Structure to design on (611 residues):
């Protein structure tokens, strides 16, 4: 019986994994939404027609929608999370104590009924027949009338009411810069179902994973409001507000509200913001992409928001060259939200009293147009893939565009990681974004250690191979949901080097790297692997005669080595704690990895000088 069970499990698991590797599929959504906004009450009423295509090989008996705004209610999971985490996000709590002795109070806990957020589903039909659903916090659980077969399309029709919360995190009314409506996560959104199953995770203010599809959205809002967001405006001459073709006549109706009609093809979200006092500039770039800038018509912002425009184009060009062409015709940089957050075809960012206060954020958020909006890895599970890769490429863009340096990866950002190691707060990058113990550990893992995955890859497989890896990753996985294994396999295919050990050690564990010069006897150098993570080792030696030589010791399980001008020595089998090699000349100094791209946590034992 046991053996039979094991055999069945083996058969089932091999078929499942074979499916994952060989027959990629993704669900598809076609949304048509019509929403009427009451700007005084921060409320809106919407209809949603969703054509859902089940491209999976599975029969679905249930579907789930996210109702993100329900998070902004006292006692919600987001409220509970911001109360329990030891280092809460300053945007989500108010400090009632002192700086030394903070007494944090959850801002959500204080919200009154007219200040909370909500998404209330009023009716829902599947193919014309009413379906049963229950609301569990930020998730709508729908029991289907009839299951959805593989390959089948069904139509869900919904009516819903929403209230935009007081601005606490990402979305809300009257942001810190006074932007009236930051409408992120504003509609009932179908949860993603992929080869790993449903991802109907509750919202606690962290990351996202969405279904690819097409959006057709009409927003009815008071005429005085300018709207910016995802999608191309279909009726610019009926709207004006800077979207119109100036050579043609405007046809604006004499109604109190305008109906803004947007279409967004091949995206996995739809976000917008609106304000009665937006300045709207349009930059037609050489690449053909139109970049829209929408910011408060206030002289404290004008200078920086004008200056940023040509720099945004330069960053766009940098990403086009180094990753692959931005595939949509439009991108909007919109003042709204808090800090910066990436959305489909746009970003909401706050501030801009000085150029330096927003340029880094805009470069980072624009990089997300590739890493997550286009290469849509599951942010909740693998936040290092979007935050890390966006940080990696945007820091090179900043070095080149803002400081005129060469766009080469640098270990200057490793300090945050070394801090986390020393403070023993590190958690593996496989931790779900919502469940890190501290916000600090989450950010260091996602941003710092995630970007180090690529920076350090330069050390392991060589810089040219990393450049080719990013381009191939773009080509193979754009408009898909790439996984950690996909970036690893891409790097393997480009370099011919085996990297499963690297993905495992760096992402799935908190093991660290420490190599040391253990012994030098005459011309014999003995190195030691002190840390748990094995690595190939670069060693630089200067000789008594004034010459120098670089050595490269490949890790045996890499089954190859990076292109290098160094002297390639025999492989180091990882399990061997030490490794000895002999030079031809008298040694003066030795240094392990002078580039410091290998994240060695103790560099004190990396150098030797003959006395
Ligand atoms: Zn980011």
């Amino acid at each position: 019986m046991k053996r039979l069970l094991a055999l069945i499990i083996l058969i089932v698991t091999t078929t499942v994994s074979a499916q994952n590797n060989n027959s990629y599929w993704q669900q598809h959504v076609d949304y048509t939404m019509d929403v009427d906004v009451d700007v005084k009450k921060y409320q809106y009423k919407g209809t949603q027609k969703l054509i859902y295509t089940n491209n999976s090989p599975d029969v679905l008996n249930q579907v789930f929608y996210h109702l993100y705004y329900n998070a902004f209610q006292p006692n919600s999971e987001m409220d509970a999370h911001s109360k329990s985490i030891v280092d809460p996000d300053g945007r989500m709590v108010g400090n009632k104590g002192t700086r030394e002795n903070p007494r944090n109070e959850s801002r959500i806990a204080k919200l009154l009924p007219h200040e909370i957020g909500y998404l209330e589903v009023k009716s829902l039909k599947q193919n014309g027949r009413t379906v049963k659903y229950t609301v569990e916090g930020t998730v709508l659980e729908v029991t289907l009338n009839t299951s959805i077969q593989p390959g089948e399309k069904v139509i869900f029709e919904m009516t819903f009411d929403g209230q935009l919360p007081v601005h606490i995190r990402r979305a809300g009314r009257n942001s810190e810069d006074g932007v009236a409506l930051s409408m992120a996560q504003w509609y009932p959104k179908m949860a993603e179902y992929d080869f790993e199953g449903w991802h109907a995770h509750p919202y606690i203010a962290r990351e996202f994973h969405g279904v690819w599809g097409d959006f057709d959205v009409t927003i009815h809002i008071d005429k005085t409001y300018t709207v910016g967001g995802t999608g191309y405006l279909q009726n610019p001459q009926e709207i004006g507000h800077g979207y119109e073709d100036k050579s043609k006549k405007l046809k604006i109706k004499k109604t109190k509200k305008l109906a803004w009609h947007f279409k967004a093809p091949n995206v996995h979200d739809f976000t917008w913001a609106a304000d009665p006092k937006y300045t709207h500039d349009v930059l037609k770039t050489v690449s053909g992409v139109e970049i829209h800038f929408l910011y408060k018509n206030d002289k404290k912002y004008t200078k920086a928001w004008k200056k940023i425009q040509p720099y945004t184009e330069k960053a766009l060009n940098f990403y086009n060259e180094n990753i692959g062409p931005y595939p949509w015709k439009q991108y909007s940089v919109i003042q709204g939200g808090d800090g910066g957050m990436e959305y489909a075809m746009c970003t909401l960012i706050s501030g801009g009293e000085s150029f330096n206060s927003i340029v880094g954020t805009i470069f980072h958020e624009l990089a997300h147009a590739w890493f997550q909006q286009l290469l849509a890895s599951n942010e909740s599970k693998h936040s290092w893939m979007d935050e890390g890769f966006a940080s990696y490429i945007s820091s090179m863009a900043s070095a080149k565009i803002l400081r005129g340096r060469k766009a080469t990866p640098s270990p200057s950002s490793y300090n945050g990681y070394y801090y986390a190691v020393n403070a023993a707060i590190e958690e593996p990058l496989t931790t779900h974004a919502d469940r890190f113990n501290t916000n600090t550990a989450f950010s260091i893992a996602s941003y710092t250690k995630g970007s180090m995955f690529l920076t350090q890859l330069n050390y392991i497989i060589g810089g040219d191979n990393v450049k080719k890896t990013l381009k191939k990753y773009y080509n193979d996985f754009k408009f898909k949901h790439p996984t950690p294994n996909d970036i690893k396999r891409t790097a393997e295919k480009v370099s011919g080097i085996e990297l499963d050990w690297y993905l495992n050690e760096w992402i799935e564990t908190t093991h660290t790297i420490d190599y040391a010069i253990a012994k030098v006897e005459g011309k014999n150098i003995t190195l030691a692997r002190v840390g748990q993570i094995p690595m190939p080792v670069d060693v630089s030696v200067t000789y008594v005669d004034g010459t120098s030589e670089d050595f490269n010791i490949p890790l045996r399980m890499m089954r190859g080595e990076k292109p290098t001008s160094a002297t390639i020595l025999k492989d180091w089998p990882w399990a061997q704690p030490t490794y000895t090699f002999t030079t031809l000349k008298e040694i003066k100094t030795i240094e392990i990895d002078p580039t410091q791209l290998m994240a060695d946590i103790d560099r004190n034992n990396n150098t030797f000088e003959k006395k």
Remarks:
- Residues 299-322 form the longest helix (24 residues).
- The pocket of zinc ion is lined by residues 364, 368, 387, 390 (CB under 6 Å).
- The two ends are 70 Å apart (CA to CA).
- DSSP finds eleven helices and 33 strands in the chain.
